[in-house]
Amino acid sequence: MKKRYLLHTPDGEHRAVVARRGDQLAVQLDDGALRDVDAAVVHNGRALSLRIGNRVHLVHLSVAGPRGEVTATLLGQPLEMTVLDELHALALGAADPAAGGGIVAAEIPGLVIEIRVREGQAVKRGEPVVVLEAMKMQNELAAPCDGVVASVPAQAGRTVNAGDTLVVITPAPG
Amino acid sequence: MTVAGRLPFDKVLVANRGEIAVRLIRGLRELGLHTVAVYSEVDRAAAHVLLAHEAYPIGPAPAAESYLRGERLIEVARSAGAGAIHPGYGFLSENAGFARACEAAGLVFIGPRPDTIELMGNKLAARRRMRASGVPVIPGTDEAVRDAAAAGRAAAEIGYPVLLKAAAGGGGKGMRVVRDPADIAAALRQTMGEAKSAFGDDAVFVERYVEDPKHIEVQVLGDGEGRALHLFERECSVQRRHQKLIEESPSPSLTPALRAEICAAAVRTAESVAYRGAGTVEFVLSPAGEFFFLEMNTRLQVEHPVTEMVTGIDLVRAQLDVAGGRGLRLRQDEIAQRGWAIEFRICAENPRRNFAPSVGEITALMEPAGPGVRVDSGIAEGCRVPIHYDPLLAKLIVWGEDRPRALARARRALEEYILHGPIHNIPFHLWAIDQPSFRDGSYTTRFIEACFDPATFAPPLAPDDQEALLAAGALFEAARRMAGTLAGGPEYVTGAPGRECAPSNWRRAALRRMTGRD
Q1: Is B299 a catalytic residue?
Q2: In CATH, what number is assigned to the domain containing residue A142?
Q3: B482-505 pLDDT tens trace
Q4: What is the mean pLDDT of residues B76-97?
Q5: What is the ipTM of this complex?
Q6: What domain count does chain A have?
Q7: Extended strands (E) in A87-154
Q8: pTM (2 decimals)?
Q9: Are A52 and B464 within 8 A, CB to CB?
């Protein structure tokens, strides 16, 4: 058995291969080697104890969110990822600008206070593009990548729901 | 005989929510008192409600329609037969009108007298009073400045840079730095406008702006009759937009002589107003080693556990002693700092997205434990973090015999923390304790501004730990799809799994099959 996956994380994309030879599981990440993995389910199915090489890792896992994001936590560091099998990822890739990382969306409901960019404007990763008010504070949302603003669905003075797209950026190539 | 038997009330209403309500209910129960919780519509099954003896609804989710409705809270207290109200922090804890209304209704307000709350809530009045009591205050005007000319004269005398501050402000709001005389007129106009709309009072005064200070505060207890004690200091310089994130005691920056001076000034502050109950006197410490009174917080503070861990004194119990007429049951020479404590505020904020708040259901929660680890938490698995209140979920406080051991324990405890659902700031704390200026104690209130960059912030995980996370994600997903196939459900077909927070039996079975283990 060999399954290929695409993992979307905040830091980029990774490829994974999960293989099974008899009783032995193996995992390959990106261009790394296929390594034997010893895995045990613990904490009532909520965590995996993984032995890779000589190191043991206890990873807590849960799934939630509109796109079935998996949250995996190790040593206090959570990693949110969307895991897609390769065929599915290819089908989505063309249609979903999020796969290229250019969407700025509201994470929680709020009020759009200020829009700092307009269509056609070049932006840099980390540059604030929208100011939202929520939970008694104003929050600046930043461009997730270098690129050019393709469209600005958000309107100042309007409330938005979680998941609403505010700014779409066409990522710069490279 | 319990302490409760010696107090003039046996039932207390906790007028708050979240972690502080849990802390207060625990403290009150330990004293043998009956506890009453209140809840808004979204807090019906919140942790603090489940811990109390009785609970009553107080309105819809927005704070203004629930936790801030003083008359409703008093009505509930009276009909429940409560003899006292504990306001916690935030909400109505520093509302003199509410304190007066409690007393008028025959309820004990567990806190200072209403006129003390009023005095310290007015920054100008507090400054004047402190100056008169011989407590060092930041050079500045004692009256509001009404026009640009007055502001300009004051600033010239004090020396630039100056800070324009709303007299009725607090928590870092209603302030503006002016470095150039040419900017003072516009800055005054803007600050007065903001003060009027935010606090209903456009009184603004001018103060010297202390660049790059450290924030040092002293915990005090007063018996209400002129005697006060201090429980030493806390340093709270790790702040973002004047919201504290990390606090520690002792402060790594104080010599014994400076510590004695600052604590004595805090006691003088409390005694000058015959302070009643628990309070905190806040100071700024300039790079040159001068300290100045900033403000006094007339309530129990978020970071009070740091002082409890280092002095061994239960501050909620001390509050109840004073409120119940038993006075201060401590002597200054009995109070000492032992070891080192550090608190980390666990907030539903995403450090990568400039600390944008996050909400959602808590799908997994495992709080750290072990020696020297305390977690004051208001959350539980399965509960939802609502948008209506501030993002503080819990506090992690660690204690060690010295600062290096406390830091090592902090790392260990933060690494044990599992919190899935809302995005949280634990990776920020892991990053912060590794920074050179935090480790050597030289950090100032500019720490986050100077050292933290959300765009390049990356959790400091070793490469094979990072790989383990990805591998686990892939394995988990592989098992989930296998479970989907077995169940024949829409999960597999559409690839859109929808919501699922507890593992299904199918997925457990698939994971076991896949790993060949039980």
Answers
A1: yes
A2: 2.40.50.100
A3: 665 443 333 322 223 333 333 455
A4: 97
A5: 0.76
A6: 2
A7: 103-105, 110-115, 122-123, 128-134, 137-142, 147-151
A8: 0.83
A9: yes
